[in-house]
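Weekly puzzle thread! Below is a chain. First person to post its structure in token form gets bragging rights.
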Amino acid sequence: MNLTIASREAQGVTILDLSGRLVMGQECNSLREQVTQLLGAKKSAILLNLGGLTYVDSSGIGILVESVINTAKEGGRLKLVNLPRLLHNTLMVHRLLAAFEVFDQEEEALASFA
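Winning reply:
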């Protein structure tokens, strides 16, 4: 299953709903391009909804880290919501969880942008 990215807006925040596999190749490139386009359009409040992901490899984790760094460099904020349990545990074990603001509920995440 390829990665699909659906974009929507709520409370001034761009929400990207990711589903499928976030793996090396076109999937990672798609997310990179989407984030770059948003930053180029001065949409710097970004929430990645990861609840639909079925698999994330090391390149997928890398693109998440890259996205949060690039967003911060542009003065924006990128946050994560609905992390699959395996991804949460992987980020925690590799001490990458602290690089992200992570939320369980979308409403809670949206409120944090205010």
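Puzzle host: Confirmed. Bonus trivia for everyone else. The domain at 4-112 is CATH 3.30.750.24 (Transcription Regulator spoIIAA).
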